[in-house]
Amino acid sequence: MLASSVQRSKSTPYPSKARSALIRRAIVVGLVIVALALVTISFRSPTAGALHDVQGAGSTALRPFQIAATRIAQPFRDGYDWVASVSTAKSENAHLKRELRVLRQEAIGNRALALKAQQLEKLLHFQQRRTFPNDYSAVNAEVTSFPSGPFTHSLEIAAGSSDGVRLNSPVVSGDGLVGIVSNVQPHTAVVTLLTDPSTFVAALDIQTRVRSGMVHTGPGETLILDQVPKQLNVNEGDALVTAGTHNAQYPDLYPYGIPIGRVSSVGATDTASFLQVQVQPFANLGSLDAVAVLVPKKPHR
After folding, report:
1. Regarding beta strands 189-193 and 177-184, do their DSSP bridges make them parallel or antiparallel, or are they unpaired?
2. Most CB within 10 Å of its CB: which of 93, 137, 151, 166?
3. 158: closest CA among 27, 262, 251, 291?
4. What is the DSSP string of 26-51?
5. Per-residue pLDDT reduced to its tens digit, 84-129
6. Which domains does the chain possess?
7. pTM of the prediction?
């Protein structure tokens, strides 16, 4: 029995590659023919035909699956739309911030130019007044540096000896006296302000014609009108101007009639011999863009 031969089943031969390719092509061609036939029948058949009934039934059967797929996809679609809207909003926000910075810079620049134009216009009006000293000419100059601290009472201007600026020339703004030139270079000059402790200006009260006293910095960094006898009449609100020269042999550094400031308060004590007069300067010494240096047409002898 062991030696008897056992017949094995004949193995099924594998289909050749060419035969498999022919089968696949035949299936594809058949599906295309069926699809074209269905499309043709659908277009040519009446709207209430059997084919349309089958389509309607298929659509009804698939409707729940479409709704379920839509509901499942909706959160992902909403999430995508939210991410896209946030990204767009951030981009627009950054763009608007850049535009806002540019507009702010332009507004600041325009405001600065407007203030400078306003000061230049005031300077022009000041030089056209009848009270402008005839013996002086004006050298207009731009302010290039400002006081750097509470104890700094000077500024620098973009005009110097090459422009005609001289040492000890009075400096004005369109509102009033600013100070005096204390240092001159060919193209720049330093102006010591009216508030500097070393500055003293003889003043005149144009309301009462009191011509006695010196304007200078007093206690608390405020301007005062000093050495005014108690019997003289100086009132709050009076305007003060430079008194000018008392003696032709000893000319004052400041010509007559330059506005200095307005009397802000007047006081007196029983034991004091002089009035206590505080002065508010007309010129805004902390915000100057342009000034004029008054240069004598003829040098003082």
Report:
1. antiparallel
2. 166
3. 291
4. HHHHHHHHHHHHHHHHHHHS-TTSHH
5. 787 787 777 777 777 777 777 766 666 655 666 666 677 777 777 7
6. 136-296 (2.40.10.340)
7. 0.60
